[in-house]
Design a protein that fits this description.
Length: 345
């Protein structure tokens, strides 16, 4: 279903170039399958194609495999980050270097089916600037992961950001104009799914059945998912602060209730250990709520502090088949290196 009035769309021609952006972290097992699948897919497209592989500080043979692929195909570009900066930063690096009219971000494990991009291109030609994939089936996922993912998106839409597409990950196509707007947002704590929704532009979803991981295991642990969810909540809303305020009000009411109870105990001669109940309850509740509120406030202050340092979102240590960056954070240090040197490493 369209998220934008179709009568306001402006049709555009088939893109002259498509950029495929893949972040990789320890994908030694899936990288050979990725090379084969992408080669086949590029032969199906009716335009120029570039593949941007962002090595997010992998410690296995991922860099060697993708560098050999790039050495044999000039359309393949490799960015190696100086360390692991995280999935969202790696995606940002790939977007900064993308030169296509349409840019697609995908996972390297081939869970995002490449053939869906043909449907995305059709929507792109209709005038949509953002075409995001919406999962229908996620084979291999546990009940816990499916249920928490379902709850996360519904919670975000209800309380944090109502235009966030549900059941959508980082599988999407962006137009050049949308990407230029997205590049203006150099937030340290990044939640690209929400940022793309915030940028606006005509957006529509494309449903697809998620494939099983082709090889290896997922690097997105439960801890990382929780961290991403917390970043999403605190980056797009002051809701946690409002919750802490509400908690403070409830604690105050609880304290008043306990005070009333203590007075009644005196006048009605209820047997209680003098001062024990009221003291323990009030100290525990007030102390706990105070610490929670300070912790939530500290999260926001910490984010402001980290953003104020204006550090680059990522650092690129070496590249293959990359001559210059289109635009983006000019503070990122890029050191060019020859293909032979990169392959030898």
């Amino acid at each position: 279903m369209a998220d934008y009035p179709t009568n306001l769309l402006q049709e555009r021609p088939y893109p002259l170039r498509i950029s495929l952006v893949f972040p990789l972290y320890n994908e030694e097992a899936s990288a050979p399958y990725l090379c084969s699948a992408v080669k086949q897919f590029m032969s199906e497209l009716s335009c120029d194609t570039e593949v941007i592989l962002v090595n997010d500080g992998s410690t296995d043979a991922t860099l060697r495999i993708i560098s050999q692929w790039a050495a044999s195909d000039a359309r393949v570009k490799v960015l190696t980050l100086s360390r692991s900066f995280g999935h969202q930063a790696a995606l940002t690096a790939g977007l900064d270097y993308a030169t296509g009219d349409a840019i697609v971000t995908l996972d390297a494990d081939l869970q995002h089916p490449l053939h869906v991009i043909h449907t995305m291109i059709e929507r792109y030609c209709e005038g949509y600037d953002v075409i995001y994939g919406q999962r229908q089936v996620s084979p291999g996922e546990t009940w816990f992961k499916r249920s928490t993912s379902w709850l996360f998106y519904r919670f975000m839409r209800t309380f944090v950001y109502r235009t966030l597409p549900v059941d959508s990950g980082d599988f999407r196509m962006l137009s050049r104009s949308c990407l230029e707007g997205l590049r203006e947002m150099r937030e340290t704590h990044r939640f690209l799914r929400g940022m793309v929704a915030w940028v606006g532009f005509p957006q529509i979803g494309v449903r697809y059945e998620q494939m099983e991981r082709v090889a290896g295991s997922s690097k997105y642990t439960t801890r990382k998912m929780i961290r991403l969810a917390w970043t999403a909540a605190t980056s797009f809303s002051a809701l946690p602060l409002k919750i802490s305020t509400t908690l403070g009000i409830l604690v105050t009411l609880g304290g008043l209730a306990e005070g009333c109870h203590a007075l009644l105990a005196v006048f009605l001669h209820w047997y209680v250990v003098p001062g024990w109940t009221s003291l323990i309850v009030l100290v525990s509740v007030i102390g706990g709520s105070t610490l929670v509120s300070i912790g939530v406030l500290g999260e926001y202050v910490g984010k402001v502090y980290e953003q104020s340092k204006s550090r680059p979102l990522y650092l690129v240590s070496r590249t293959v088949n990359v001559h210059s960056r289109v635009s983006g954070n000019e503070n990122s240090n890029v050191r060019q290196q020859t293909i032979s040197d990169a392959v030898s490493r």
